[in-house]
Amino acid sequence: MPRAIRFHQTGGPEVLALEDTPLPPIGPEDVHLRHRAIGVNYIDTYHRSGLYPLPGLPSGLGLEGAGEVVAVGAAVSDLAPGDRVAYGTGPLGAYADEVVVPAAKLVKLPPRINHTQAAGMMLRGMTVAYLLTRTFRVEAGMPVLVHAAAGGVGLIAGQWLRHLGATPIGTVGSAAKVPLAAAHGYAHVIDLSQEDLKARVHEITDGAGVPVVYDGVGKALFEDSLDCLARLGTMVTFGNASGAVPPLDPLTLTNKGSLFLTRPKLMDYTATRAELEGLAQALFQVVESGAVRIEVGQTYPLAEAARAHADLEGRRTTGSTILLP
Fold first, then answer.
1. What pLDDT is recorded for position 317?
2. C-alpha dist (Å) from residue 219 to 151, 215, 242, 243
3. Which residues cross the membrane (predicted)?
4. Can you list the domains of the chain with their CATH numbers?
């Protein structure tokens, strides 16, 4: 019987358990998928902890995976058994040997992208794609600030920004992570354990600030990030690794230079099949061209999902984190 990580109550990593879990019936528009690799993302910890409430418990976990098609529903015509596919926008329950997924969520993998790469990049890579090209359109020559530059999203963002001709500025939490971020496109890396964020950003930009900040950290860096922005700059907060951003008086944005603030999510940028295909193909293109390489920092057996979560939340990971069935 297939196995899946499930949890019966919200809480810390210890609530995760590996259980025998029968697959649901395959509907006419569904695909039975055997996983070869599964992506671990910060949003998974939000679901597990209850920060992002789920409809009900017990529940599976995970939104990203890659593998091979086992069988398809009667109405599925563009996929067949043996096809290599990946997904990064759910449905919830990716932490499993096998899953039943709507065909509309899957994209075929190009031959030069393997399952582990795919599971390490679909959610993160498509996130970077929409952040840099749709939420705020980065242009050549722009200085751009990215927090958690040595994380899964950060490593992809640094390379993609360099590819676009921007000047990536990344932050990391320790000196040990500086070389990794620098090797993945960042022209400047700020070690927050040793350096003042606002002072360094204004030094790098000759006092002008940056036109955009991409922040997946949340509470710990939000206030200082606003002070790193240029007049009319855009604050993009897309994650809560350090906790949720507190409520904000809109006049704060006025007083700091008529700033823009947005809190986007990938699912709203992949709501249609055309949007999903567009972001996935943009990601495949930069990876296949060599402009962006996917850094898988650590892998864990599926049964050790709790350890993977503990390491992720303890800032002991770099790049993408993968579970192997």
1. 87
2. 17, 10, 6, 5
3. none
4. 3-120+294-324 (3.90.180.10), 124-266 (3.40.50.720)
